[in-house]
Amino acid sequence: MTDNPLSEQLLAEHRPVLFRYALLQMRDAELADDAVQEALLSAWQSSASFAGKAGLRTWLIGILKHKIADHWRRSTNDVIFSDINQFDSEDADTDEDAFFMRNGHWHSGPSAWNDPEAAFKQQEFWAIYETCQNNLPPKMARVFMLRELVGLEADEVCQEIGLSEANYWVVMHRARLRLRECLEIRWFNSQKQEK
């Protein structure tokens, strides 16, 4: 057996963090565990390529992102995106400039979002966020997940799913609007009423 600079024990120490990351993105414990196992095996097999330019955890999460993307790539091969433009007509009437700057960031968040750290600490928020994300149309949810949760760049998402760049931006815009509306209704408005 050859000397491996990354021991199995060292890699295993990062397993809980990697599992939480994968579970957040895949929402299935078995799939998340499989992705983590594949990532750790891949890291161990290619440990000679770890130059230490990034932290070990950062490197491992990078490998895990690719394993998760591979999973979604395999999953999306069964889905046809021919009707990607056929979302609710009411979404088409939304004025993008009213909500987003040219770089895709919000002009300003809702007033109830002034203390996001407090909201993020609450498990209830994440349960509601997950419900909101699950209520996105499946095609829209996949595009959003690949970009925002898996961390693929826009051109990678387009290539993975077979979207044009214009369709990608429309889908992302609509996903953000729907999530914002859902969170306003189900979380932030209810928080105002409790106070």
UniProtKB/TrEMBL annotation:
Occurrences of domain RNA polymerase sigma-70 region (ranges): 11-75
All residue ranges annotated as the RNA polymerase sigma factor 70 region 4 type domain in the record: 131-179
Pfam families the record matches: Sigma70_r2 (PF04542), Sigma70_r4_2 (PF08281)
Superkingdom of source: Bacteria
GO function term, MF aspect, one: sigma factor activity
Transcription regulation recorded as keyword: yes
InterPro entries for this protein: RNA_pol_sigma-24-rel (IPR014289), RNA_pol_sigma-70-like (IPR039425), RNA_pol_sigma-70_dom (IPR014284), RNA_pol_sigma70_r2 (IPR007627), RNA_pol_sigma70_r4_t2 (IPR013249), RNA_pol_sigma_r2 (IPR013325), RNA_pol_sigma_r3/r4-like (IPR013324), WH-like_DNA-bd_sf (IPR036388)
Keywords carried by this UniProt record: DNA-binding, Sigma factor, Transcription, Transcription regulation
Protein's UniProt keywords contain DNA-binding: yes
GO terms for biological process, alphabetical: DNA-templated transcription initiation
Family (UniProt): Belongs to the sigma-70 factor family. ECF subfamily.
PANTHER family named among the record's database cross-references: RNA POLYMERASE ECF-TYPE SIGMA FACTO (PTHR43133), RNA POLYMERASE SIGMA FACTOR HI_1459-RELATED (PTHR43133:SF8)
NCBIfam families cross-referenced by the UniProt entry: Sig70_famx1, sigma70-ECF
Name this polypeptide is given: RNA polymerase, sigma-24 subunit, ECF subfamily
